[in-house]
């Protein structure tokens, strides 16, 4: 157990470094200074979840994880070669083919909110089509994970103008996540609650 925990902590640190680099690149893509998303605490918490899906003898009768988008800012996912992850694109489900050694990066709802739709969160699900066990490791980034957070998020002022009005109302980070979990995994219902 001790050996495994050391590896897990090292992995989490390396993925945190990757997340920080991605947030810098996303800041620049929005036309902001590289530290902008970090400065507004989009990377203040990291939650690592390991998923294990046992073999499913009747996959047509089950779903691994239902349709949803992630509530935070950014998710970095490592999946094994089994597959089963799908994204919803252009009104249909598309398989995300596993690539050995590659990460899948999902934009979360709160990044969609603060970027004023500059980035869009991705609806996804996992099918239980595996004949062998499926394992994935998801790293979720954001200050919203802390239920005591008093951080307020709204569309970033530098992204707004007379021609680009805010699309979302401001929210306390902890209120957003409470709402997100209160409705459960259900498409993109949580963020639609905050649309103006």
TrEMBL record:
Entries under InterPro entries matching the protein: IPNS-like_FE2OG_OXY, IPNS-like_sf, Oxoglu/Fe-dep_dioxygenase_dom
The protein's name: Fe2OG dioxygenase domain-containing protein
Family: Belongs to the iron/ascorbate-dependent oxidoreductase family.
The UniProt record lists the keyword Iron: yes
Pfam families: 2OG-FeII_Oxy (PF03171)
Annotated PROSITE patterns: FE2OG_OXY (PS51471)
Domain Fe2OG dioxygenase: 44-144
Keywords: Iron, Metal-binding, Oxidoreductase
GO molecular function: dioxygenase activity; metal ion binding
The organism of origin for this protein: Triticum turgidum subsp. durum
Gene3D superfamilies referenced in this protein's UniProt entry, alphabetically: B-lactam Antibiotic, Isopenicillin N Synthase, Chain
């Amino acid at each position: 157990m001790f050996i495994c925990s050391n590896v897990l902590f090292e992995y989490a640190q390396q993925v945190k470094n990757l997340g920080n680099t991605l947030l810098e690149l996303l800041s620049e893509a929005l036309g902001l200074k590289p530290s902008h998303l970090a400065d507004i605490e989009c990377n203040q918490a990291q939650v690592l979840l390991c998923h294990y899906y046992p073999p499913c003898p009747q996959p047509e009768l089950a779903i691994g994880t239902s349709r949803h988008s992630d509530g935070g800012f950014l998710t970095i996912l490592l999946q094994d070669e089994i597959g089963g992850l799908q994204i919803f694109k252009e009104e249909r489900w598309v398989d995300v083919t596993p690539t050995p050694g590659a990460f899948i990066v999902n934009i979360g709802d709160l990044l969609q909110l603060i970027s004023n739709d500059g980035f869009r969160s991705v609806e996804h699900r996992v099918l239980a089509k595996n004949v062998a066990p499926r394992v994935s490791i998801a790293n979720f980034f954001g200050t919203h994970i802390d239920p005591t957070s008093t951080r307020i998020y709204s569309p970033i002022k530098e992204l707004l103008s007379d021609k680009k009005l805010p699309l979302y109302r401001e929210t306390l980070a902890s209120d957003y996540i409470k709402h997100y979990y209160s409705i459960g995994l259900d498409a993109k219902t949580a963020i639609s609650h905050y649309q103006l």
